Amino acid sequence: MKRSLGFALLSVISLTACGGGSDNDDSSGGVMPPITTEGLKTCDTGSDINTTATQSALTFYNESQYSAGRPSAIIVKINDNKVNDFTFNWTQTSGDNLVLKSVKSPVLAFTAEKSGNYSFEVTATGKGLTFNESIEITIQAANSNQLAVRTDQQAVKGNSVSFRLDQSTNSMPTNINWCLAVGPAIDADISTPEQALFTAPNVGEDTISILRATATINGVQSSDDVSLLITQGEPITSTYFEERVAKTFAYNADSPYATALQECIYSNQLQQSCTTSRLPLIGQTTATDKQAILDRLLVSHQWMGENFEYVLENLDPSGDFSTLLQSVTAIVISYDVRPSFYWVVTGAIYLDPNDLWLLAEERDTINEAPDYRSGFSNELKFLMPWRYVKNNNYTSYTVPRSVRTDRTTTEMMPDLASLLYHELAHANDFFPRSVHSSLSGPTLLDDFNRRNNAKALVSDQLSNFYPLISQEMASLAQVSFRGETANSTQKNYSPTDVTSFFSPDRASDYYAYSTTREDTAMLFEEALMSHRYAIQRDVGITDKPENPSANSIIVDWGQRGRIGDIKLENRAVYVINQMMPELDGASLIKGLPDPIQMAKGLSWAQNLEISPSLNRTESRAQTSSLSSLQPLFPPLRYSGDRHIKPVENPTKIVD
User: Fold this and answer.
1) pLDDT band with cut points at 50, 70 and 90 for residue 16
2) 228: part of which helix (H) or strand (E)?
3) Model confidence over 261-278: pLDDT tens digits?
């Protein structure tokens, strides 16, 4: 999600913003540097675009030559109409089967591995009109040493856009340069040579823009063009979504809530919360099965909805996510959402698709705009890293975007599950199923305000019955997560000092001290990850060397599976019983493993293999078998880095 959109959302009352994984996480624990952009130079030669007219208002724009193994596209525009006023559906009708992940876009992106003839059919529907046309193209044999830039796409003017040049260990491109072959001027960030990041420029009509990357492969200069269809969007009138958001559509086009989803959840025209009579919580309706959930799904790409549906049908055997989703109005999965968050103004959960892709072609469609989550604690002398582990191995997927590969559901689920447990804990903190029948509206925000004023939220009651004790940690959290300036005493706290504040208290994580809402969500997330997946969370307190890494930071104190600590038992039991009473919180917590203490004086890396289930030889063998691409020690993760967004004025947030 764009930085300014994050600012706008966070300044609105009672936003709970938490994040999923990111390909752009800042592992330093500090604030990411600002983007430096420069105007792309005009290419020495333009790019030929073939125009194919049809019997209807549709016009195809296709490349002058298609090559096997090279990313390609066919673009369709509609004469005298805006593309954004129509919905699209592409099907392949002949040729070797292709992996198509943009079938609902006016830009059909694909890569053909074999030469030959290929045919496609597209249907465009909107404004009471329907057009259906076909086109055939010929794919030539692959060229040697050819570049590949991904991926051709559509973006509304003002959207963030990212293109990436494929990297190959066998033929690594060098001397990479970008230029503009067709279209209006673009200011791009190309500080990472294989990547171009920019904002789609303002245009007066639907416009095709083409960028060209040139590089040297095996001593031979090569180039590849990549296309962007810049489309019109309605004027931004929303006081909530003040920066351009992606075009999204209801995953189930026949959903009775399709129009409400478009207007009430993720729109640059959203002026106020919609009424619960128009868009109630899923659990307030008579139909609460998986189809009812899919009827509330809003996506930017069809594959996002398909993968989410697969998770509900096949990867949620206990029904946890389906149950917890009863407390939201909608689910948004869009290529420009980063980080993930829950928002009471709409009652929806917004998911970063980085936690949901399985195929490389799916990951290609996710925007790579930098993730401006911040760490404000540069002047403090300690770090609090975390990680999820199972059998002495990391469980988070950390293969960088530069490595283009598929992944399995086993590799996907740990990050996705922990994200869903956390975000849906926020929704069930505000509106657990036990209160659904008593909500009176007229909007969900009205109900929240009444519950908040009465201190009736689960997190309010948790803080009342089982408050956190350490004032030092609470004050430090305001520095680390809310942007307050550290005082001289705080700047001089050593890791040992912080250990004396944190370890006797009953928070599961440092981030729990940021707000009572996060305290509640962290307890629920860690408990359910341990219970359902036997995945335990490590939390530690370490020193802060100049260039911290898993091998260089030294543990002063740490625990694996802190949620099993007797000090946290009553707190975790209370939260679970309020959100999912069918689980029986007391039995669940008593069934969790006892926490394991880390060895003081050893590095964070050396404290990885502390569980007794495996010896070092077995653990290393299992680690190497997980994936040849998975690094042994991924980048460090710090408390809150998956959740926090930067805030211009933190006092605007009402917890």
Assistant:
1) low
2) strand 220-231
3) 999 999 999 999 999 999
